[in-house]
Amino acid sequence: MKKLFALSLTSLLAAASAQTVIVQPSASLGLRGTEFGVSAGYAAGGSVEAFVHAPNVAGPVGIKLGVAYTKPSDSIRDDVDISGANSGLTLGTFGSYKAEGATESGSHLTVGLDGTYDLGPVGTNLRALGYAGGRYGMFSATENYDDATSTTTSMNAFGVGVGAQLGYRLANGMTLFGDLGVDQYFNGPLRSVKTGANQNADVIPTNDALYASQRARFAFPGTVFKAKIGLKFGGN
């Protein structure tokens, strides 16, 4: 009887263990193959990106969350008057001030949340996926003048994006991939802070009559094409 009881208990424990494995979140939610990726390339300037990707959350559909930082190739348009396009004033273009020593700098920080779709194998060790989702961009441009004054103008904007990745499996848990995509950002309020003489701060909403004129001064993204290469770690 004791042997029979022990055998029955062992069988029950084995069954319970099997049930535990079945209901683990990593299995039921498809998180077991989570990937971490880093990439670098071009997106309106030199750009680096890091992301986490949970593929096959529901069949071929997954989720990707990424953050990218870009050093833009241009922040302030040289051919627009510093008073704004069509302002009626002629104070000189930013390009003319640059010739006298003015400088510019800027940055783009973007966050993206995408749904992904596994397109499957497309060749030996090659696999493709498509993605589409929302974007939130934080764009900044600073103009520095030789009289020790500077103005930083920023725009935060929502957007959408689509793209595709083609990955080549180098080894278990390591994939080399290329990433091509396009993002479209919408207009957002312009916030400017001036330092030095006559310090001030200002906000121009998108429905302001001056918005289009001032927006034209800055090379903040509208449509952005990106091309990057990187590595993904993890996965199945």
Automatic annotation (TrEMBL):
Keyword Signal: yes
Keyword annotations from UniProtKB, A to Z: Signal
Domain of life: Bacteria
Signal peptide: 1-18
Protein's name according to its UniProt entry: Outer membrane protein beta-barrel domain-containing protein
Taxonomic source organism: Deinococcus reticulitermitis
